[in-house]
Amino acid sequence: MREENGMELLKERIRKDGKVKEGNVLKVDSFLNHQMDIGLFREIGKEFKRRFAGEEITKILTIEASGIGIACIAGEEFGVPVVFAKKTQTKNIAGEVYTARVESYTHGRVYDIIVSKEFIRKEDKVLLIDDFLANGKALEGLIQIVEEAGAHLAGAGIVIEKGFQPGGEKIRTRGIHLESLAIIESMDESTGEIRFRESAC
Ligand code: 5GP
User: Fold this and answer.
1) SS3 call for 15
2) 46 close to 1: Cβ distance less than 8 angstroms
3) Helix (H, G, I), strand (E, B) or coil at 32
């Protein structure tokens, strides 16, 4: 894969198979969120490895469910364990877990995520991975957990950022090393047209 446009393959796939739904939701069920194209995942994993080559990473942290597949393939590239935050509706879970509250973009409700204290330690250097970045709530929840653990946040790798929503700017403004492999500038529900930000490649 060529360095200057490493993720052209991903963008082509989004253009070909992505479906723009109401509420600024992009459906990519045929290769990312339901059926998974492992060949493409492998390219994505390699691209994350290339973009975070300068960072020391000891652990990947993602959120269930749709981040897990991507995170696993990335974990293989980096040679580190993958931890996923579990979504739960149980309140007041005491003691052994870190928790954060996350507002779901696609389902519109609020849920708690938990990670066992056993699996994120203060010596860890954590790379966050997720499939989408929209308003930044999922990443903010994961960041909160890394901070609570006293671990080092090495960065965040996102497959598809919707650049017209505020999450990316919020995370970058905090000085966090954020890498999004495809940044959508705009998408049109009526025509299905998807435009990408050129600097993303
Ligand atoms: P955020 O927390 O940044 O608002 O949204 C990110 C989370 O919501 C991701 O974990 C992803 O699962 C989901 N999400 C946000 N926007 C989209 C979208 O357009 N399509 C899909 N399939 N998931 C999305």
Assistant:
1) helix
2) yes
3) helix
Q: Sheet containing 178-187: give its strands across.
A: 97-103, 110-116, 82-88, 59-63, 125-133, 152-162, 178-187, 194-196
**Given pLDDT bands bounded at 50, 70 and 90, which one contains residue 4?**
very low
Residues within a 6 A CB radius of ligand 1: 25-28, 33, 63, 66, 105-106, 130-138, 162, 167
- What are residue 129's phi and psi, to 5 degrees? -130, 135
Closest Cα partner for 28 from 69, 85, 63? 69
Q: Which atom of ligand 1 is closest in space to residue 67's alpha carbon? A: 10
pTM as predicted = 0.95
Half-sphere exposure of 47 (CA within 13 A, CB side): 28
Q: How far apart are CA 64 and CA 39, in angstroms?
A: 21
Beta-carbon contacts of 190 under 8 Å, excluding residues fewer than 6 positions away, are: none
190 Cα: distance to centroid of ligand 1 (angstroms): 20
Main-chain phi, psi angles of 113, to 5 degrees: -115, 145
For 173, residues 6+ apart whose C-beta sits below 8 A from its C-beta are none
Res. 187: pLDDT tops 90: yes
Q: In angstroms, what is the span from residue 169 Cα to ligand 1's centroid? A: 15
Spatial neighbors of 79 by CB under 8 A, at least 6 apart, are none
